[in-house]
Amino acid sequence: MIIREITQEDAIELIKFQKQLDNETKFMLFEPNEREIDEIQQSKMIMSFLESNNSNIFIAESDHRIVGYLSVSGGRTKRIRHSAYIVIGILKDFTGKGMGSELFNAMEQWRLSTNIKRVELTVMTNNEFGIKLYKKMGFEIEGIKKNSMIVDDRFVDEYYMAKIY
């Protein structure tokens, strides 16, 4: 397995990965077949991350296939440029094997070259595996976002979690 920063050449593979992830888990934002993005849009999105000094995407590859990712979206305005929002996703067959920790470690190394002092995320309160990983990586629960999502026709709460440097 290789952890590296994304390139524009990864656009098609990232779309395939995200669509597979949407089908495999109910802990991500998109329902199966809801994600509508083409290679050009994905390539532009990747470029916007690469051109930013406080945003990035890290991917985990196995056999030249994306099997995990962590995106870091830095604040755009002066007051929140020190803060970044994280999204992480790992394919089911690769969970529980240390990939999440490795993706976070890659982000942490990269963060040292930025002015990011706060990273934050939201996680469904029933995602025990995710919460355990985030706590292991130094995140703390800051609050609850009530009825944040509807999954399988039921309201689901999310935790706000953050790590301050």
TrEMBL record:
CDD domains assigned? NAT_SF
Name of the protein: RimJ/RimL family protein N-acetyltransferase
Record-annotated N-acetyltransferase domain positions: 1-165
Tell me which domain of life the UniProt entry assigns to the organism this sequence originates from: Bacteria
Q: Which InterPro entries match?
A: Acyl_CoA_acyltransferase, GNAT_dom
Recorded GO MF terms: acyltransferase activity, transferring groups other than amino-acyl groups
Pfam family of the protein (one): Acetyltransf_4
Q: PANTHER family per the record?
A: GNAT-FAMILY ACETYLTRANSFERASE, SPERMIDINE N(1)-ACETYLTRANSFERASE
Key words, A-Z: Transferase
Which PROSITE patterns does the record match to this protein? GNAT
